[in-house]
Amino acid sequence: MNWFRKRSESAPSAHGSQASNSASPSAVDAPTSGNAPAGSNAPEAPEAVYGAAPGNRPPRWLWRAFVLAIIAVFIAIFAWGALGSLKSLGVNLLIAFFISLALEPIVVWLVRKGWKRGAAAFTALMGSLALVVVVFSMFGNLFVQQLVQLLQAAPKAYEEITAWIEQRFDVVIPETGELVDQALSEWGNDVASGALLVGTTIVGGLMAVLTIMLVTYYLLASGPKFRASICRYLTPHRQTEMLRMWEITQVKVSDFLNTRIALAAIATVVTAVFLLILGTPYALPLALFTGLVSQFIPTIGTYLGGALPIVVALTSQSMTAALIVLAFILAYQQVENLWLAPKISAKALEMNPAVSFVVVLGFGAVFGALGAFLALPIAATIQAVANTYLRRHELVASPMLADPPASKPAATAAA
Predict the structure, then answer these.
(1) Which of 332-336, 358-362, 371-375 has the lowest mean pLDDT?
(2) For the whole prediction, is pTM greater than 0.85?
């Protein structure tokens, strides 16, 4: 018996509706045989096979899409792992790019004097490296001696600080010997692995320095050729926009880095002279730390850089000396912000302190200490490009855009 019939065959037609309504229920409900009744003109209904309908089978593209999705997931996992492995290389390339931008004006100046591009790039790079070596060689011996003395005096300073804290706050702090014994008991078995890790870190650092120098030299030596190789894949209009953006980035980043270096050098020299006059020990390493931190960490860099000299003055001299160092740090910050920095960075990019602080925190959270160090140049580049391409409008007159004027004191009535 065929129980699967098409709807058009099983349903009554429009013309035979009255006849079917008058038919008995038994005739309607009774199953029909596979063969047509004798004398009827209805064609024989074809047999339908269960499960042969297209809707009961998945589409042909489903399995192909499933396989492609699995392949895409594996490719994404591999790409993520590869990017994680190439993170250090990307950081080195970024450092080399910013160094090349800082040295580009020197190379251009030498080329205008008749030097070849490769010789000018090599001279600028080696000259900068020689300048760093000369500075460290001039103060290196004294710097190392004072740094060693600082490390040797650290246990005594720790004891004095713990004694002061215990007297003031009635707490018990472990002594130096207990900390050393605890460290040896926990990490004594890892001395060999630690030494191997230190050696590997030194080798990795040397390789990173070599990579940065080679990439910097390549960017300096083939600057126009490198830009031309990029422009070949762009339309003339896009080439103009790309070269304009490159020039803006180069000028702003170069000015910004040179300004930071100059301000760091001035802060280091002034702080060193002040600490030497005050008689604070370890003046040179403390001054160098203060100069670098105060210039490359915005807003709170001055306070972070000045905290270490204050602590050293407090532990090695007296409370009076620490207060004098604190007053010097605050006074120098005001002089730098109000007079020195505007004079030196007249052409450099100025950023809002709150924006720069948030940028440093964000880059530091994502890329670590080096990200915090490079946050300001990157933010300077982004802001320079935005200031060039974003349209600015006239401001409307509103009291929300300016501080209210100071109220004048009431005039005294004439007698």
Answers:
(1) 371-375
(2) no
